[in-house]
Amino acid sequence: MFVASEDYDDVGLKLDDRLIKRPAATFFLRAAGSAPDADVKDGDLLIVDRAEVPAPGRVIVAVVRGEMITRRLPPGWREDDGLEVWGVVTFVVRAP
What is the pLDDT of residue 2? Predict the structure, then answer.
């Protein structure tokens, strides 16, 4: 079925509207190196929400000895485990 162009309101494609829930708390990071447990590869673009609540199974960005790393939180992880979670990865953008 076709739609007449005058009946169609073209608002464009805005990835921000689809990928970012909280703009003030969201950052884009480029992965330098890979994290196989988190399915993150060198060069991937990570969309990280600092207001998202970390939970076991989620992919996070953490600060370890002053360096940012990406890991998947293991089952049984608790906030008092001593890991400084910087934010939760909400999307990974990878070139084909």
Answer: 57
